[in-house]
Amino acid sequence: MIKCYCGSQQDFANCCKPYLDGVKKAPTAEALMRSRYSAFATHKADYLVTTTHFSTRKHHKKEDILEWAKSNQWIKLSVLDCTKNTVTFKAFYLDDELMAQIHYEHSVFKLEDGSWFYVDGEFY
Asked: Which residues contact residue 21 at a Cβ distance below 8 angstroms, ignoring those fewer than 6 apart?
């Protein structure tokens, strides 16, 4: 069994994979954010596009998402803080030159018709 990329210490098959496969909906903003990290790690650009809120989706091209996901080696996710609609996290990765990087973001999410969506984020 593969541990989930999101850092939950659960098996991927029982954690984020059902969300990525469309079998289940993420029940919280944090679960969606964790599943989106797993989507970057597994190059699931379609999931990243469909879980982006329609109001900001035009700013996120599938090709660009996929290129960024594939050009980096995703190391780990650290969730620092959560509220009902926000998640602050650090995503650790190696860039295409194998330099250690940290993506530090405070993300905003929105619940609509029973589904969570990523709206936007403030980067640090």
From this structure: none
Q: In the prediction, which pLDDT does 59 show?
A: 85
- Amino acid code (one letter) for 31: A
Q: Which amino acid is at 97?
A: E
Per-state percent for the chain, helix, strand, coil, to nearest 5 = 30, 35, 30
Q: What are phi and psi of 64, to 5 degrees?
A: -70, -40
CB-CB contact of 51 with 36 (8 Å): yes
What's this model's pTM, rounded to 2 decimal places?
0.95
In this structure, are residues 107 and 121 in contact, taking their beta carbons and an 8 Å threshold? yes
Domain range 12-123, CATH class = alpha beta
Q: Which one-letter DSSP state was computed for residue 72?
A: S
Assess contact for 29 and 41: CB atoms under 8 A.
no
